[in-house]
Amino acid sequence: MENERIDRIIDKHHGAAGSLIQILLEIQGENHWLPQEALERVSQRLKLPLNQVMNTATFHKAFSLIPEGRHEIRVCNGTSCHVRGSQCLIDTVQNITGITSGETDPDLKFSFKTVTCLGCCSSGPVMVVDGEYHANLEPDKTEDLLKNCD
């Protein structure tokens, strides 16, 4: 990620150290992960120790220090979704993307994770694609959703 893009995000927050999490979220939103060089730039510009920036980036599960796909897939496999057939969704995602939970495909198109709860227990099984919730899913609909990702 170019320093100019990082600087633009930091400047938007007036270089405030208290905006560290928001700055990191925006960098990741544009870049799909937090490269070491970006973390170092944030550290320099906010005048924060690099270990403080790293601690924040590694503490919050929203951040990734490895490249993520352009499309983020989350399938709930909590008890409610599991008994309603989430394993079929997981199998469908794995068949279409060629990756298992916790992986990103080599083309950086998809990242996939199973999670224990998405907060929609009465609507399971549930899958989130790029932040959009899809409830009461069946494998055919899952396949359609993923094939429509550019």
Question: Can you summarize this structure?
Answer:
By secondary structure, the protein is of the alpha+beta class. Helix content is 46%, strand content 13%. The protein has helices at residues 3-12, 20-31, 36-46, 50-59, 79-83, 86-97, 139-147; strands spanning 71-76, 103-104, 110-115, 127-129, 132-134.
How would you summarize the topology of this molecule?
Layout (H helix, E strand, L loop, with lengths): L2 H10 L7 H12 L4 H11 L3 H10 L11 E6 L2 H5 L2 H12 L5 E2 L5 E6 L11 E3 L2 E3 L4 H9 L3
Parallel strand pairs: 1-3
Antiparallel strand pairs: 1-4, 2-3, 4-5
Portion in beta strands = 5-15%
What share of residues is helical? 40-55%
- The CATH topology name of the largest domain reads Glutaredoxin
Number of helical segments with 4 or more residues:
7
Shape: elongated
Biggest β-sheet, characterized? 5 strands, mixed
User: Gyration radius, to the nearest Å?
Assistant: 18 Å
Order of helices and strands: HHHHEHHEEEEH
Assigned CATH architecture of the largest domain:
3-Layer(aba) Sandwich
Q: Domains counted in the coordinates: how many? A: 2
The low-pLDDT segments are: none
The CATH C-level name of the largest domain is: Alpha Beta
* Adjacency order of strands in the biggest sheet: 2-3-1-4-5
Give average pLDDT, whole number: 94
